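Annotated sample (chain length 218).
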Amino acid sequence: MYAASHDLRQPVHNLRGLFEELRRSATFNDPDEAQLLHLFDASLHALATTIDDLATVVQTGREPGEQATERVVVQEVADEVLQTLLPQIVVVQADIQTDFSASPSFTYVRSNLRTILLNLLTNALKYRHPARTPQIQVRTYLAAEQPVLEVQDNGLGIDMERHGAELFQLFRRFHPHAGEGTGVGLFLVNRLVQAHGGRIEVESQEGQGTTFRVFLQG
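Output written by the structure step:
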């Protein structure tokens, strides 16, 4: 996987350069030109994203001991993630509420916590319900002295009876019509959480929303 993700980057980069030159200098006598160029551009973007995701999957294979833990202030990490997602939040007019008062900080790998929260919030925004404004609650608390990160949304939800067993499998998507994606996000989240001896519980009702409870340490 590492070799594939590494070796494919240069050909894709070359394709991107050729495409940009084609779009800049070529002339087409085709009424569907704009649509075709858009589809080609979207396909290149999807390919590059998949390769980047593969590289990220490889990195999660590192042993937890190789990554430095520290006392992480959750609000600081959340602020970084929300700033990253601000364009998407504004576009869909999402209402995101945070409450970290019950467990404002704990020892963890900061970059991993950021990745976990980023992917859970990205999914909550991406798989929002088209008939209502996205309402997302993010909170932390302690369960038997174990820190828990909870992300709850009012989005499309998941048929857990049908898809629960494959929820964290690589490249699995449950709402392919709802937006772009490679099906890597939840796989990464689960991989990172398990690397620290944690686990994830999911409650979801199709058409109503989903709650992820991430028990961050075993």
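Annotation: The first strand starts at residue 70 and ends at 73.
Annotation: The chain has seven helices and seven strands.
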